[in-house]
Amino acid sequence: MPVTMKSIEQIDQQNETKSLISSFTNLIGLAKLAKKVNFKRKSSISLSMIISWLMSVHFARHSLYRANKDDNFSIRTARNVLNDGRINWQKLLCLVAAKLISILKPVIDKRRRLAFIVDDTLMSRAFSKKTELLAKVYDHDKHEFLTGYRGLTLGWSDGNTFLPVNFALMSTKKKSNLIGSKPITTDERSIAGRRRLQAKRQMNDVTVELINQALKSGVPAKYVLFDSWFTSPRMFWLLKQLGLDGLGMIKKSSKVYYSYRHRLYDIKGLYDHLAASKICKKNHYLYSSVVIAQYQGHEFPLKVVFVSKRGSKSNYLVLATTKIALTPQQIIQMYGRRWEIETYFKTAKQYLGLNKSQIQSYDGQCGYIACTAITYDLLAWQERQNTDDKTMGDLFFIMNESLPEMKFIDALVYLITELKQIESDTKDEINEVLTNFMVNLPTLIQKLIKPIV
């Protein structure tokens, strides 16, 4: 009898999973997106069926080789679809995110600052020497070169919900760092060829391409948040040409100069100048000033904010944005949202097996990442449904107060946490944020996904 009851519970859970995935795919109109992303398989098996099955595989915590096959197609068929170089996986993720955002729009306050968030993460592949475009990549946490890729990700946030909207699997252009096989094609006339050439370009250039593609797909945003790895006058200028304001952390470099009151300073020199002046330090930050940045003869204003760890004169962070109308408190609060993409990386790796792909082809890995991101979109949607009280009938439209944004003090705590990274690991902090994210999910979702050991 216990075995029978366990089987019944398992069947019920599988049916609930299928129902949940089916509702989500219908909500975003996944079946209608196939032609838009160049899916040209001549059979009764649709792209929506393949992705729905892959999402159930993520929930079951199985690899593609150990997953339960679908009644309508074999696992080999699913792998063939993932490996199809004609499918534009980046565009698919953009369109899915744009659809979800349009559904959320009625409950997003019009005063809310919508923002893109950019970051990259290590996609380790230590035992896949023959994988296409596999390379030696630098791990900033361990400070050593590892085998794998850099997973460049573009996310979207309204201050409550984070959605991955675009991605690129970055390799290397140095032949000495290339470990895996060479790209099977570099023909720029094909999607597969452009995807592989993109993997070998500079990450900042690819970031601008991903943002531009997301904007053209209908993803609304006015800001772009990034850490010091992406921050430069060039990045600020390129984003300004797209109609976006960048907001990031500036490196304390002695090679980049800014004009302040008709004199040039590097960022450390500017801090020393302000510290030596009679400007009083504020309660939540040290100093704030507007400087002039330059890129290829173009000049534009940049607002910089110095945030310091209390009790320390040498440890401070420097935030900067081209939106000079923002107050220092608003700049700190906005930058605090950048932590959401770290939560996504942790969730996708620990619960959805983002870096556990066993696929050898480069196209297949891109398809796997896209399906993982779409699965996370489902989780984010369910979390929003479970958190938002305005989902009861007409109240969803009548009570149009949006969920509260991150408080200023919380953003300040986040910045202090980043300062602590200089001396200690932040694994515990990320785990705490991840735990809070999981607790807010519906009970069904919590039962479906289990942490990766």
From TrEMBL:
- A Pfam family recorded for this sequence: DDE_5
**Which residues constitute the signal peptide according to the record?**
none
Q: Enumerate the spans annotated as Transposase IS701-like DDE domain.
A: 72-261
What are the TM regions of this chain, as residue ranges?
none
Q: Domain of life, per the record?
A: Bacteria
The protein here is known as Transposase, IS4 family protein
Q: What is the lineage of its organism?
A: Bacteria, Bacillati, Bacillota, Bacilli, Lactobacillales
